[in-house]
Amino acid sequence: SQTIHQWPATLVQPVGSPLSLECTVEGTSNPNLYWYRQAAGRGLQLLFYSVGIGQISSEVPQNLSASRPQDRQFILSSKKLLLSDSGFYLCAYTGEGRRSSGNTIYFGEGSWLTVV
Amino acid sequence: AQKVTQAQTEISVVEKEDVTLDCVYETRDTTYYLFWYKQPPSGELVFLIRRNSFDEQNEISGRYSWNFQKSTSSFNFTITASQVVDSAVYFCALKGSGYSTLTFGKGTMLLVSP
Q: Which of A97, B38, B61, B105 is the most exposed place for a label (fewest CB within 10 A)?
């Protein structure tokens, strides 16, 4: 069966410190991978998506970056966190591979980031 | 451009009441896909349903039902005999045929009280 895991679940970091959130998918190959952020007010904002190893598309210019070193691994990073980076970060993947545009996107458990 | 509108920000009902969550979408694609997700207080987004644009058949799954109407660009979600465990934020989302990503509505918070 397919599963997605992301960690850490909760993170409190000082302003200016680095960030690394990791996400891995199991049970599927060549998935599309995504990072979303949900700030106060509930809206979901797409940050990055990837259709293959080393292929990253950025949707919103910001203080964050993403990398995909392996087929089923997606990492969200920052060199220096800002207060505005606080929020709930969700990793997601396509369940059936990326051939069909109608593939369902499944989400991980999320990571709560508080920048202080 | 794609857009999803969930006009209801918050709905409060008493247990056992029926409740309908509205979703209106905009897209220029002739083929597209609609989704509903549930976000309980724990935060995880749980997939509920996917509907293809060429399949307007309504769907029922237990206490959940979905009414897809292309003529009004709506994909509404009804919970029958609501329960406290249904309390969550519900998101409607749209994916066009050429898009790899989802466009989400802002969500509707459903509060079911005993």
A: B61
pLDDT confidence bin for B85, thresholds 50/70/90: very high
Contact A83, A15 (CB under 8 A): yes
Asked if residues B90 and B21 have their Cβ atoms less than 8 Å apart, the reply is yes
User: Could you tell me the two tokens for A45?
Assistant: 């904002």
Tokens 């950025």 locate to A58
- Whether A14 and chain B come into contact, CB under 8 Å, resolves to no
Q: Retrieve residue B58's tokens.
A: 């309504």
Q: For residues A11 and A112, is the Cβ–Cβ distance under 8 A? A: yes
Cis upstream peptide for A14 (omega within 30°): no
Strand partners, B104: B93
A25 three-state secondary structure: strand
* Chain position carrying tokens 């990326």: A98
From chain B, pick out residues whose CB is under 8 angstroms from the CB of A112. Answer: 43
Give the H/E segment covering residue A14: none
Amino acid code (one letter) for A93: Y
Contact A102 B101 (CB under 8 A): no
- Per-residue pLDDT of A36-70, as tens digits, reads 999 876 789 899 999 889 999 988 767 899 999 99
Contact B100 A107 (CB under 8 A): no
User: In which residue are the tokens 């509060």 written?
Assistant: B111
